[in-house]
Amino acid sequence: MKKLLLLLFCAHLALAQSQKLTLENVVLLAQNQSIASKQAATLRKTNYWKYRTFMADFKPQLSLDGSLPSFTRSFVQVTQPDGTVAFQQVSNNNSILSLGLSQNIPLTGGAVYVQQQLQRFDNFLNNTTLYNGVPFEVGLSQPLFRFNQMKWDRQTEPLRYAESTQQYIEALEKVALDATGLYFDLLVAQVNLQIAETNRVNNDTLHKIALHKLDLGKISQNDLLQLQLSVLNAEKDLASAQQTAEVASLKLRSYLNAQDHDPSRPQAFELAIPTQLTPFIVDIKQALHEAFTNRSAATGFRRQVLEADRDLDKAKKENGLNATLDATFGLSNRGLQPRDIYVRPQDREFVEVRFTLPIMTWGRAQARTETARANQQLTVQTVEQAKRTFEQEIYTQVTLLDMLRKQVKLTADADQIAQRRYQIAQDRFKLSDLSVTDLGIATQDKDRARRDAILALRDYWQAYYTLRLLTLYDFETNQKIHYN
Q1: CATH class of residue range 2-56+152-312+368-480
Q2: In terms of one coarse class, where is the protein primarily found (predicted)?
């Protein structure tokens, strides 16, 4: 953690002063201040509070309900004993206050509650007041033979939350991968710009030497024209490289959400070439194990199978006998004063069983069950195919990383050889021992070798961060990737 804070501080300091950045600096900046990283943090917070809401549903809930006041003044229709209708004037207040404590029962899908209730009735026409209340009542509402949503939620929701936590880590690793791509886009552009500037200077120098050789009769007019064309092409390549580097710099700055002291004159990034590769071995079995342990996709596989089993269970149970048991036991009383309610209260009982039994559905129940069963089988098959694709992706990335590490060394060696060969060719041309055509070939080989070396580094580092993204494991330090 201290190392991370130190690197982050150094990255900000470097950005503020001279704009000199390494790949590690850019990755840290992107993961801490880019819009993409902030969106990932916000989504993580949202998922955290969703899970907290889910967990709270299984804790005791204390609530105070009521209607206070509940005043009515009107004429109401009242049927008389002889069947006639009379319109009676009423003016009253019928207020109710109830304090209840409830608890869901995930194992059975029911709920138990305890409550206390007080009711006051004021008749303003004859100036009387009555009280009615329930000093104590305990009740149970229990579904019978029905689908238990709470039991399944207790299995799927923790997986969903774990999945969202892993998705946050993946999002930051994806930010690192995207930042690496933009870093190398700019680095390649800067290398091309350096090549173009060097070629312009060298071609201009060689053209001046060729003019002197032409006077001495040591070079043909055709070779001189070829060198003049090389000078013009170098000028054109330089202008194109400058524009490409500027665009790449703006893209990287935008992604990093970097702020300049003077927006009208943004400082240019100066990127270091990340040639230092830490040697480490990636075991394919370990990579597969870490991927299936850490990745959100692996957690999602388990959740999807559970949800398919849940839907099948729901289709089976909701197509048969559905019943609900409601039972309460308590005490109740009435009186002229609130305290009268607690004096010798009477028993209060209520039991009810409501049920629905489908008798004739014309095959609808079976069709729903078989549809859910087919979907469950399809989900299992889809997950199995996704697992195999996942494994293949990990295997490919591990072998690719090892191959690209070798490519980096080979292209670096080729770059050094090409640079030395060009220097020798340039010296030979100055001594009139090499043709313009051979010099041009040496120049092209030099430029191609330098670009290939940078592109090999880009491919390696992108493969490196892709493997981190696929496994959420740091094979350099041999530890799982975590972010606070």
Answers
A1: mainly alpha
A2: membrane
